[in-house]
Amino acid sequence: MDDNTITRYEDVEIDDIPRNLRFYPSDPSQAHTLSSERIEAYNRDGYIKGMRIFSGEEINNIRSYFDALLARVLESGGDSYSISTAHVHYGRVWDLLNDERIVAHVKDILGPDVIGWGSHFFCKMPHDGKRVSWHQDASYWPMSPSKTVTVWLAIDDADPQNACMRFIPGTHQHGHMTYHLSEEDENNVLFQTVPNAEEYGDPVDVELNAGEISMHSDLLLHGSEANRSDRRRCGLTLRYCAADVRAMQGWHLKGVVVAGSDPEGHWSNPARPEQD
Ligand SMILES: O=C(O)CCC(=O)C(=O)O
Fold first, then answer.
1. Is the C-beta atom of 214 inside 6 A of ligand 1?
2. 118 Cβ closer than 6 Å to some ligand 1 atom
3. Containing domain of residue 185, as a range?
């Protein structure tokens, strides 16, 4: 049920699954929450950033919740990257996946029928040495067509010092790129690496204040360096797709209808978990 922590064995199989991996532009005339200029920027660059969702007080509460959750997970043998598909385990994360303000942004990108199917904390502890190598999200996922957008919610302030994400604008237009399995010494949190990524353009830093979001296409080349600072850098990725996307390998089980409907009933639509 994990979204990014699928095994290498499955990864070999995933490239055998026929998938339609091309970018589907959003319609700027359908914008309600985002401006049409923002949608145009998303279509052009493959991302937008800096949208405030939560007030300082709200994000402080969310951070306190996450601190306690992380302590529980560390105590039971997990690590700061292992809280994945969290919305099917923890009610508070289900609430974030369903948050009306976040979902309103997502509807402007994906249309009225939206499935929330992924939630994974990428929590870089100070000096933990882990990077996220250049990759395309869609490459990991048994889903087609590639109509998924990731909302990255800053739980902590994120900047180049504590290894914020980096995007290479426009790379969502290249379809599925060639990758290799990551080398051990890369210390990659995930396991795919697109080689020579910077030949595709200059990376931009995705600086965010806590409580703000960025949104990126599942085909955009992105990653992040190791956190060499004394400050933690935690972000919650919330993954959404259009309801007409089909999931394989049982991934339909984690999809929640967060807006509109799922006309063909493909997604399991699990209820809010009782435990927070
Ligand atoms: O948080 C990070 O540094 C990487 C996150 C990521 O790769 C993703 O959102 O797909």
1. no
2. no
3. 8-259
Is residue 45 within 8 Å of 170, Cβ to Cβ?
A: yes
Q: Name the H helices within the chain.
A: 8-14, 36-45, 56-75, 91-97, 100-110
pLDDT at 5: 41
- pLDDT of amino acid 82: 96
**Residues 29, 36 contacting (CB under 8 angstroms):** yes
Q: What is the CATH number of the domain that holds 42?
A: 2.60.120.620
Amino acid at 72: R
Domain-embedded: residue 84: yes
Please give the pLDDT value at position 11.
Answer: 52
Q: Residue 15 has what pLDDT?
A: 85
Question: Within the chain, which residues score under 70 in pLDDT?
Answer: 1-12
Predicted pLDDT at 13:
77
Q: What total number of domains does the chain contain? A: 1
- Is 108:36 a contact under the CB 8 Å cutoff? no
